[in-house]
Amino acid sequence: MFVPKSRTFATVCGPFLLVSLALCSSCSRDCPELVQAPVIEEVLPRPQRLTSRWSYVPDDGFVPDKETAVRIAEAVLLPVYGSRQLESEKPWRASLEDDVWTVTGTLPPEVEGGTVVVELSKRDGRIIYLVHEQ
């Protein structure tokens, strides 16, 4: 006689499930702390606070030059826009103002449209802004 797998599963596992539920419900009356997790009210410090206190930061920051800024921008942009789009916007331009690197793509003169713009922190490499202009 053929018995469907789902019926076999219910026949074999059903009794175990019922026993587990019965044990769990009796336990919840005796030890409510196991059923309801405590609420954590402590606010953890933000990662940059920990970094500024405990981590080494080079004098020139983690993004000291335009080559590093471009490499970081490419690494961030690749999963967002894909390699084909990134190749079409090369060469990259990078400029530094107030410890913020701005990396932009370029387009051939005959092409209309916008390019990607990424702003990142010279000090810690954090992405501040990312957009593809129209």
The CA-CA distance between the termini, in Å, is 67 Å
**What is the number of helices?**
3
Cα-atom radius of gyration:
28 Å
Task: Identify low-pLDDT runs.
Answer: none
Helix/strand order, N-terminal first? HHHEEEE
Major sheet strand order: 1-2-3-4
Measured by DSSP, the beta-strand proportion falls in 15-25%
Quick one: CATH class of the domain at 61-132? Alpha Beta
How would the global form be characterised? flat
What would the CATH topology of the domain at 61-132 be?
Nuclear Transport Factor 2, Chain: A
Helical content, roughly?
40-55%
Chain-averaged pLDDT: 76
For the secondary structure, the number of strands is 4
Structural class: alpha+beta
Q: Largest sheet, if any?
A: 4 strands, antiparallel
CATH architecture of the domain at 61-132: Roll
